[in-house]
């Protein structure tokens, strides 16, 4: 597909098309299964925390789910907006943008979103911020 962008004639062979389709379908299904597994993990975390029955425990449980809920909403929202509309309602350009969002942007953001909940990652980011703040400024 990438080499096709540079060619004047925009055609690919049947084998290349089938390979590209299967790879994209496999990656899409992997993303859906990963989100489902993470949703189950978050569900188990909330159920065990809600048994504590403290307000602080409830807040912690819902903070745990916030990032996952945002990711799932972005992913499935863009997928549904691409595939569940009549073809005359959207332009091809809009479909392409939405496809890039759910196929490339959201999978790239997932590790960032979930790692920012990790205290070790937060510590590394704080140390990097301090180092940058203490660097001499060029004029």
From TrEMBL:
Transmembrane segments: 65-85, 97-116
Any one GO MF annotation of this record: G protein-coupled receptor activity
Membrane topology type: Multi-pass membrane protein
Subcellular location: Cell membrane
Main location: membrane
Pfam families cross-referenced by the UniProt entry: 7tm_4 (PF13853)
Record InterPro entries: Olfact_rcpt (IPR000725)
Gene Ontology CC, one term: plasma membrane
Keywords of the record: Cell membrane, G-protein coupled receptor, Membrane, Olfaction, Receptor, Sensory transduction, Transducer, Transmembrane, Transmembrane helix
Protein name: Uncharacterized protein
């Amino acid at each position: 597909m990438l080499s096709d962008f540079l060619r004047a004639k925009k055609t690919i062979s049947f084998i290349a098309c089938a390979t590209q389709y299967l790879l994209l379908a496999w990656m899409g299904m992997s993303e859906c299964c990963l989100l489902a597994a993470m949703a189950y993990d978050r569900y188990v975390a909330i159920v065990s925390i809600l048994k504590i029955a403290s307000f602080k425990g409830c807040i912690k449980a819902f903070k745990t789910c916030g990032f996952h809920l945002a990711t799932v909403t972005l992913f499935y929202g863009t997928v549904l907006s691409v595939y569940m509309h009549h073809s005359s309602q959207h332009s091809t350009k809009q479909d392409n943008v939405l496809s890039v969002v759910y196929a490339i942007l959201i999978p790239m953001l997932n590790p960032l979103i979930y790692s920012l909940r990790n205290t070790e990652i937060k510590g590394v980011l704080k140390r990097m911020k301090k180092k940058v703040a203490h660097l001499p400024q060029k004029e």
